[in-house]
């Protein structure tokens, strides 16, 4: 039995997220499993490093799967690139240790969120940025970002109201960079709750608008979802890196 690792990139615009759904083949995981099963002539189930939401993109998603087929990885890679849709790409394919698990072995993930904050059109990047016009106070947002760094109970930043496991996570770095008409949020953590990055960004935007103070963010730890900010649009978010 082989264990194979895939490094994957995708444009999530037309998909219902990473995770396979019953009754729908329109997910990244579903497309990969269907294609792999056909190429290898056996039923394949893959495990991803995390579940990106509908409309969210990835430059460096990682997945692994087990199979009996002895097809060389070079040939498998060529076949995947041939048969997968053009908006799902395989960066690399290799045999790994049986102990490797894409989700359980991940120690850090980095996401980037791109915000277009002027009324000017953003035609060619519209699938990859959230267009939310308005003046933002970057200094206040950066102060709030520093408060969010560290190990905290991020229950207020989790969209799953019935989540029963620990909501304690560590944000190693939360950087906000201005790039002309665009603001980029780069967030590195040891793991993320459902919709956590998008809620963090929504909360920071509210700070930038003056709808809440930077200092008030500290009071959100351990609170209910309703206390934190709005859910920022999906298309601005991209999984940038997974470290093991």
Q: Please, what is the oligomeric state?
A: single chain
The helix tally amounts to 4
Helix proportion: 10-25%
Beta strand count: 10
Helix-strand sequence:
EHEEHEEEHEEEHE
Q: Which structural class matches the secondary elements?
A: alpha+beta
Give the overall shape. Answer: globular
| Rg from alpha-carbon coordinates | 19 Å
Please indicate the percent range of residues in DSSP E strands (runs of 2 or more): 25-35%
* Terminal Cα span: 22 Å
Mean pLDDT: 95
Main pleated-sheet profile = 10 strands, mixed
Poorly predicted runs of 5 or more residues: none
What would you note in describing this structure?
This protein is an alpha+beta fold. The chain has four helices and ten strands. The chain has helices at 28-40, 73-83, 138-148, 196-209, and strands at residues 2-10, 46-48, 57-67, 88-95, 108-116, 130-131, 150-153, 168-179, 182-189, 237-243. Strands 1, 2, 3, 4, 5, 6, 7, 8, 9 and 10 form a ten-stranded mixed β-sheet that branches. Strand 8 and strand 9 form a beta hairpin. The mean pLDDT is 95.
Question: In summary, what is this structure?
Answer:
The chain has 244 residues and is an alpha+beta fold. The protein is built from 4 helices and 10 strands, in the order E-H-E-E-H-E-E-E-H-E-E-E-H-E.
Supply the key terms.
20% helix; alpha+beta; 244 residues; 10-stranded mixed β-sheet
